[in-house]
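Q: A reviewer asked whether we had any structural model of the full assembly, not just the individual parts. We don't, so I'm hoping you can provide one. Inputs are below.
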Amino acid sequence: MQETLVQVRGLSKQFKRDNGETFFAVKDVTLEIRRGEIFSLLGPNGAGKTTTISMISGLLTPTQGDALIGGNSITKNPLAAKKMLGVVPQDIALYPTLSARQNLEFFGKMHGLGGKTLNQAVDEVLDLIDLGDREKDKVDNFSGGMKRRVNIGIGMLHKPQLIYMDEPTVGIDPQNRRRILDTVLRLRDELKMTVLYTSHLMEEVQEISDRVGIIDHGQMIALGTVGELIQKVGEEDRLILKVGEQPVAEPLLRRIESEVATATRAQYERREIANGDSGALAAAEGILTVYATRGRRALPDIIRLANETGVDILSVEVREPDLEAVFLHLTGRALRD
Amino acid sequence: MLRKIWVIAYKDLYITFTDRNLILIMIVTPLALASIIGLAFGGFIGGGGSDVPVQNIPVAVVNLDQGVEFGGSPLNQGQTFVDLLVPQGDPDPENVLHQLTNAVELGTAETARAGVNAGDYSAAIIIPAEFTASITTTQAQTALTPVQIEVYASPAAPVSANIIRSIVESFSNQIAMGSITVASTIGALTERATANPLFGLQFAAAAGGDGFNPDFSAAFSPDAALIRIEQQRVTGETAAFNPLVSFGSAQAVFFMMFTAMAGANNVMEERRAWTLQRQLVTPTPRMVLLLGKMVGTFISCVAQVIILILALTLVGSLIAGELQFIWGTNLFLLALVILCVSLAASGVAALVAGLVRTPEQGNTIGSIISILFGLFSGAFFSVEAVPGANVISRLTVNYWGVEAFNKLSQDQTDIGLNLVVLLILGVVFFSAGLFIFNRRLSV
Ligand SMILES: Nc1ncnc2c1ncn2[C@@H]1O[C@H](COP(=O)(O)OP(=O)(O)O)[C@@H](O)[C@H]1O
Ligand SMILES: [Mg+2]
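A: Here is a predicted structure for the entire assembly that you could use as a starting point for your response.
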C-alpha cells in the first residue's frame, strides 16, 4: 500500500448565514490521500469542496478536526505543511496588469525560489502550459482558457509534492478542458506529484481519478476508487426512456420489474417544462427509468411491454453505471441540480 | 523574511507605478492644482488680482494705540483700524471686510497671541501704543518715526494669515501715504465692495480701481515704509510665505492620504481577487505578508511626496529664473518629515483597512477620511471660522505634516513636536491596523 501523504481527520467548518444562524459547510470529513495518486472530491456547487481545500491549505481555521500534510499539522505547524503544497484556486487569481512571466515570477519568489532556479522553473511551466510565446503579454489580454492555464501554472511552479486543484476546468471550452486534464495526468505520471482535484463534473473525475470522495451538503457520502463506487449501485445500466406527454400507469412499471428478466427497478417521473419567456406551462415530459444489468438486451422486452399498454417510446438512452448514477443512488438527486 | 517583505512591496510598487491612471492621480493632479493655486495666489501677494474664496477668517485685533491730540480733538488711527475690521453690532453683509474676516477686539497682546497659539484665531493684529503718535506730526512731535504693526499669525493657516497681512498692509498704506484720508478710504472700500460682490480678496490687493489706489511700494520697499508690518510666526521669527510650498504641501499630503488608503485597501481587494489567499498558502507568515503590503504603501507615499516636492521646486525655480530651494535647505529634516508623514498616513490607512469589511467599504471610508482630513486641515479653503475646526485639524496627519513643511521652507527647525506626533500616529495606527488585520485573516 502506498504511503499516506495527506490525512484529514474529522474536519468541520461552521459558518454564519446572513440571518445569524450557523450551519456546517463541511461536517466531519475524514479522508486520506496517498502519495502519487489523483484524489478527487466530487460534489455539486455548494457541497463544501472549496471550504475543505481552504482548511487543508491553511486559509481557514477548522471548527473541528485537523489535517496532516506529510505529517505536519496544518493548524499547528502551517509553514512546514505549506512548504509541500501547491494550490490552484477555483477563481483565477492573477495580477491582470502583470505579464504571465511576472505573475509566475512573483509567486515563485513567494515560494522561496530565486535566481536561476526561478528562471528555469518559469521557463518550464510556460512551456508546459503552452504560453512560452505570450509570456510578456499582460494577463489581462488573455482569453479565459489562457488565464486558467497561468492560474494552474503558478500552482505547480515550485514543483510541490502535493497540488490542490479546485475546479480548474470551470467555465472553459472543451479544447482547453482537454488540455488541462492532460496536464493533470502529466503531473501525476511524469512529475510524480500527488493531486487533490475537485469538480462537479463526473465525467472528468471518472476519467482522471485514482480515488474519489463524493461530498454533498458538507459531508463525505462515499469514498473509494471509481470502480468501488460504481459497485455501490451494482452492475446495472440505467435505461432512460422518454415518453413525452403520455401518462404511464403503475401496472406497466410493475410488469417491467417482474417480466423483464434483468430489470430490477422501474420508475416514472413527469416533468413540466415551462415556457422560457412566459413561464406558462408549455409541455410535460415523462421519463421512464429502468435499472437493469446488461440493459441493451432488456430493451426489446421493455419496448414490447410499453407498446402493449399503449405507451409510445420516443427516445432511449442507455447509461452504463457511472459516478452520476452513484450520486443519484446516494442522494436521490442529479449532480447537476 | 525581509526578502519576502520586499518581494511583496516591490510587486505593489511596480503595479502602482506602471499604472498611468494612478500616476495621473498621484502626481499630475496635485502638481497641477498646487501650481495653479500657488501661482494665482502668488500673483495676489504680488499685487495682481485673483479671487480666492476665503471667508470669515478669525482674527483678533488689539489696539494698544494711545492716540494723540490733533487739532484739539483726539485722534486714534489704531481705533480707526479696529472700527474698520470689527463690526459694530451685526456684521454688515455688504461689507467685504466683515465677510472676509471674523474680527474681535481683545484687550491685551498676550491674550491675542495665546488665542492664536490655541488655534482660536488665524492671526492677531497688534497695534502698538505709539502708533498714531509715530505717524502723526504734532506740535510735540515733528518727525515721523517708523512704527510696526505686528501680525501674529498661525503657521497652520498660512493662507488666512497672508490675507490678514495684506489687509493690514493695505490699510497701513492708506495712512502712511497720507494721500487719502482714512474716512475716504473706508468710503472707497465700502463703495467698491457694494459694486462688486465678488470683490473678495481683490479688495485687499486692489490693483487699480476707482477711488482706491493703494500703493504697495511703501509696504515693500524698506526705505519708503513708515509703517512696517512684521508677520510674526508663533516662534517669533519673521515669516516668508511661499504659496507653492503651502499649497504644494497641502495638496501633496492630501493626495498622499488617498495613496495610503488605496494601498492599504489593496489588501482587501487582493483578498477578493484571491491573490491574497494565493500568497497565504505559500510558506509565508501572515505578518510578513501584511508588512510587505504596508511597506509598499509606505514607499508609494514617500515616492509620491518626493516627486511632488521635486516638481514644485522645479516650478518655483522656473518662475524665479534660478534654482530655489523653496522647501528650505535642511534636507535632513525635510527627509524626516517626508518619512514621518508617510508613516502616519500609511498607519491611518492600515487601521481603516483593518476595520472595513469589503474593498468597497474601504474605498468609501478611506476617501471620506482623506477628504475630511483635507477639509479640516484647510487644504481647500480656510476652515478656521468653523467652531472646533482648529482642534479637529490637529487630529489630522495633514495638519502636522503641512505645518512642518511650511516651517522648514522658512528655515525654521522647530518641528520636533510635528515629527513626534506623526511618528506616534504612524506607529500606533500601523501596529493596531496590522494587529486587527492579522486577527481578521485567521477565520
Ligand atoms: N465565508 C463563508 N461564510 C459563509 N458561508 C460560506 C462561506 N464560504 C462558503 N460558504 C458556504 O458554504 C457552503 C460550501 O461552499 P463551498 O465550499 O464554496 O462549496 P463548493 O466549493 O463545493 O462549491 C456554501 O453553502 C457556501 O455558501
Ligand atoms: Mg468551490
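A: Points you may want to mention in the reply: Chain A touches chain B through 27 residues (CB under 8 Å). Chain A has two domains: 4-230, 237-320.
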